[in-house]
Amino acid sequence: MGVLFEARGLIKRYGHVEALGGADFTLNEGEVVALIGDNGAGKSTLVKCMSGVESPDEGELLLRGTPITMASPSDARKHGIETVYQDLALAPELGPAENTYIGRELLKPGLMGKLGVLDKKTMRAKAAEAFTSMGTDVKDLDAPVSALSGGQKQSVAICRAVMWASGIVFMDEPTAALGVRQTRNVLKLIRRVAETGVSVVLISHNMTEVLEVADRIEVLRLGKRVARYDAADSNVEQLVGAMTGALDTGDIK
Amino acid sequence: MTATVTPARRVRSKLFGATAFYLLGVIVAMAIVFSIIRPDAFPTFANSRNILTDVSILLVIAVGTTYVMVAAGFDLSVGSVLVFAGVMGAKVMAATGGEGWTTVVIGLVVALISGVVWGVFNGVCITVFKVPALITTLGSMGAALGIARLITNGNDIRTVPLSMIKFSVAEFLGLPWIVWIAAVVAVVGGVVLHVTRFGRRTYVIGSNDEAARRGGVNVNAHLIKLYALSGLCAGFAGFLSLVRFSTTTITGHSTDALQVITGVVLGGTSLFGGIGTVAGTVVGMFVSAVLNNGLIVIDVEPFWQEVAIGFILIVAVYIDQRRRRRRSRA
Ligand SMILES: Nc1ncnc2c1ncn2[C@@H]1O[C@H](COP(=O)(O)OP(=O)(O)OP(=O)(O)O)[C@@H](O)[C@H]1O
Ligand SMILES: [Mg+2]
């Protein structure tokens, strides 16, 4: 299993706040990595830096060993990187299918397409197909996303990312608003995605969930990576200890 | 999940949005009342034609405003841009000389360009320099009118080519050409907003600009295009106004933006963006047009119309706010 994606020494400052203070991150091909850390540890910021939303002040990103720069989320997408943002980034007034195609709208073939006419039917059908195959319970494709429950909204954002990803999916707390059954579905989906060869980075505060689904775990504290574990030989106490700093592990290679 | 929606209701709400649908009822009710008071003067073909002609020019502006407001933008400058474009068009036509169509076409092109220039200026200030849309367009509202006055020393230009005067009285199927032109603008504007990628992205940006940005949409470029479109519509309206009155109307457009925004919001476009249709806007614009016309026909002081429109705007925004709040709670 080769290294797919790597972040080295990322620094990101917001004014006087140093959200990332030289953070590292490693992701191998086809694996599920959990990124954990306390509130404010810098997890979301790290994901934003690795998905083109924010550009780090310092540090480098390597994809399959080659340094890359990502000036925008579209750059990240060109590398096959998709993200489920913590704030979901959905357009509340639009429907689930329409949200799935933001920025990637399909056009009708031929002259109509040249004039910029949308192929609404195909987009709808493909989105419906994706929702069904991923086992989400979004039934009404015409209701605006604002009318969906928190969990359904999250499902839409997850489906969108998984549908388009070809290399990496970042998921920033994808199960935060989900019930037990939906959480199970998402965890299953994460494993299924990983089996197709796409690597998944999961941010979560739920340690049992993390230990269950992840191959590896990377711990972030105060904007730095402080520990890495194989899920198979770690436990909840260890993870919590590393997150809070009660336990200082020298596990970093 | 919400209750099931019948297909008929879906089509209806897609076309107008619920508010605008009830507004159709309001228009009908007003028409009935005015017809009862003045059966000889209100429900006549000539009067209907007046209403249509009156609404045409503002409707052309309103189409551009709908796009801007669906994207959660705001454009107060349209009335002044209309005047500016009309003045530029008239000036250039006078300088070109001649009474023929070539001169008219040159005037049209100049008016359109003048509108687009103001629109791009607004768009750049708002997106690149991050000056709030309200302030930017308030500023260009003053500036555009000021420049128009400087160019003309404050006096209307009353010379237009003969072919333009002829065109202003020409009719097609009993209606002046500008009515048909406005109808075409509305239909094209409505279709483009509804079926194209450009239209879809306009909704996305208005609904959640960050979602658009993360989806890879160049939000700033799109917004600049929208303000340019609004300027284009205002410029075109300026030219149509020249056609209709055969003179610039420098002092006559200070409340255009207010009237247009009222019509657009009444028609169901949300001040917060993401929602709105051109069909709704058409209905919204007819509310003030019918009210205006009816009050004149029944001999009420026309100032009452301004009073009414002012309050209607407040009510429309109140309804919009409430709808918004209810949704965010859901
Ligand atoms: N846009 C911003 N402007 C200013 N400060 C920010 C911004 N985004 C993040 N920060 C700060 O950076 C730090 C890290 O934030 P981040 O959102 O990455 O944490 P997190 O690990 O995702 O936390 P949580 O578990 O609560 O989601 C915090 O101190 C936060 O206040
Ligand atoms: Mg976070």
From TrEMBL, chain A:
Matches recorded under PROSITE patterns: ABC_TRANSPORTER_2 (PS50893)
A Pfam family this chain is assigned to: ABC_tran
Keywords, in A-Z order: ATP-binding, Nucleotide-binding
Domain ABC transporter: 5-247
CDD domains per record: ABC_Carb_Monos_I (cd03216)
GO molecular function annotation: ATP binding
InterPro entries xrefs: AAA+_ATPase (IPR003593), ABC_carbohydrate_import_ATPase (IPR050107), ABC_transporter-like_ATP-bd (IPR003439), P-loop_NTPase (IPR027417)
Alphabetical list of Gene3D superfamilies matching this protein: P-loop containing nucleotide triphosphate hydrolases (3.40.50.300)
Protein's UniProt name: ATP-binding cassette domain-containing protein
The species this protein was found in: Paractinoplanes bogorensis
From TrEMBL, chain B:
Entry's transmembrane regions: 15-37, 57-88, 100-121, 133-151, 172-193, 264-291, 303-319
Membrane topology: Multi-pass membrane protein
A Pfam match: BPD_transp_2
Record localization: Cell membrane
Entry keywords, A to Z: Cell membrane, Membrane, Transmembrane, Transmembrane helix
Coiled-coil intervals: none
CDD domains according to UniProt: TM_PBP1_transp_AraH_like
Protein name from the UniProt record: ABC transporter permease
Organism: Paractinoplanes bogorensis
